Structures are given as structure tokens and as C-alpha cells.
Amino acid sequence: MTSSPMSKTNQSKNSLSYSSDHWALQPYSLTNSNVIALAYFEQSDYAVCIHPEDKRGYRSIIRLIKNDQMISTINREYTSSERIGLALVMALVTEAYTRILPIAQNAVLGNNAHSFDPKTSTIQLGTSEEPIFLHGHVFGRGNPKEHYIENIPLDGPIPGMIFDLRAQSPHEPGNDKRVSWTPDEINKVVHRLKAEIDQIHNTYKAHGLTVITQNRFVDIYMVRHGETDWNTANKIQGHTDTQLNTKGKLQAQQLQEKFAGIDFTKVVSSDLIRARLTAELFLGPDKSTMIETSPLLRERCFGIWEGRSFVEFKSHVDQTINLDNMTQEEYVSFK
């Protein structure tokens, strides 16, 4: 699909237009029934999904994606990083297939969505029906009649024969036609491949590849510490380790009712006593041992101004600092 710098062959890229509802421009989500996983490598995203039109070999496709701008992924040349990312995802998915089937194979192919004009020596990347996009195929080989995944025959050609991905070999059983999926078959294969990928994907993290097979939603609750005497006196606390007063302790205990029924899996608090005690009081003695503390969650340090009033501090700032002359970066840092 590419020519050397010395070649006289011309390439025509991105000269074709596609409607926003074109199949190749649709985003990929783990909520889609045929999507097995999403992967991330450096600056690139990839989708792993069941081939929508061919069940032979439990066939899947891995492709480069950019969900908010899919048009940017088609009919162009690809960077080394993008190609390396595809190779890593394909290696992962191929390994998952080896855990299910006797043989796993993969292929990175041009999908024949290109043309050549001999008069102008121009190669057109993509056609009006099908664009070029960076992708690969993974499929299994074995006994075509065997159910390697629950009640789903493998289909396809027997081992030893070339696997014709286009299914255009009419005299070769298994290569003579594509085999359609049923929704139930898609669900079962996707479920099994997700399970296998979950078992092995951590190995690929060392190579910079991140893979997710399930949407994971996390509820985060942010709680301010209870009242201190310096709060009531309008004093700057910063890193000074002030204690909760009686009202502050009561405020923390009242949070127990508010958070009743919530099973916290992690609690992180500032290491200052006013924050840590707030967490201990609303969690109760049975769960207080789960608290992790970190100085990174402290209020910012105000140095010599700690213990002095906010009114005094504001007056000093107004008299000594011209906020109007600050750059945006300086202002944000100051704030």
C-alpha cells in the first residue's frame, strides 16, 4: 500500500468522503455486544471485536480506532508506534485463542479496498464502499466440527489448508463461504475471550499495553473534615495539625447515617488529625483500620501565615501583589 521515496507511483489519500453513519466510522464501546476488549498503547487506541460477518475460526478483528474522530484513522499511512501497538494487541489476542484452540493464527492484510490507475500510476487508498484502516485478524484452527466453545462449532477449513479469509474458494470445504453468527454465539465467544484475556493481559503491561474488557464504574465520595476551633475563628490552618472540636466530632459521627449501606473498598485521608479523625468517626471502629493516609491530601501550606486570619492575609495580598499583571499560569499557581 506504500511506495518507496524513489518510486514514481503516486498515492491518493483522503480524497474520498464518507457519511457519518458509514460502518467503518462507528465508535467502539464495551457495551457493544461484539466488542471483546479495548486496548491502549502510547497515544493509540484499539478495539478487539468479533468479525461481524464470518464465524469461521471464531474470527475476530483488531483495529486502530479514535472514537471521537474515526475519520482520522482511515485511508492514510500509519506510524511505527501505531503498528507496534497493533502487533502487541494481536499477540495478546492470539495467545488468548491458544488457550482455547489447538492452533491460533493471525494475519495483517490489506483488505483490497484500493485501486490502481495504470495511466497515471496512482494508487487510490480506499474505495467509496470500504476505506483502508490499520487492522488485523485472529482466528482459530482445529476440527471444524468441534465445539471448542460451548455448543459452537469452529467451522472453517481443516488444518493444513490455507484459511481463505475472503471465503472465495468454492471447491474447498470451509473456504467456500462465510458462516453467519447467531446473537447467542457472539455472546458466548465474546464472554470466553474476555475471560482468557483477563487471565493474561497483565503480562503485556510491561510492554506498555493496557487492556480492558469490562466497564468499571467507581463512585468517589469527597468529605471535608469536621469543624475545628480555627475554622470558627477564621484562621488559616494549612499544614498545622489542628484538632476537631466538639461540633466537628459530632459532624463526623452524623456522616455514619448518611453513608449507611455503602461498602467502601478504599478510604484515603490526609495524615492531619482533623481529616483522619473525621474518617475514623464516620467509618466506626470496625472499619477504621482500612484508612490509608497521605500527606498529598493535606491542605496547601501557608507557612508563616498559618494561625493568622484570612482577613489579614487577604489585606496583605491586596497591598503587595498585583493579580492583574500575573500570567494565567502564575495566577493559577498562586490560587
From TrEMBL:
PROSITE patterns reported for this sequence: PG_MUTASE (PS00175)
Molecular-function annotations in GO: fructose-2,6-bisphosphate 2-phosphatase activity
SMART domains linked to this entry: PGAM
Catalysed reactions, as listed in the record: beta-D-fructose 2,6-bisphosphate + H2O = beta-D-fructose 6-phosphate + phosphate
Keyword tags: Hydrolase
Signal peptide start and end residues: none
Binding residue positions for substrate: R224, H225, G226, E227, T228, D229, W230, N231, R274
Keyword presence, Hydrolase: yes
GO biological process: negative regulation of glycolytic process; regulation of pentose-phosphate shunt
Protein name from the UniProt record: Fructose-2,6-bisphosphatase TIGAR
Species for this entry: Rotaria socialis
Lineage summary: Eukaryota, Metazoa, Spiralia, Gnathifera, Rotifera
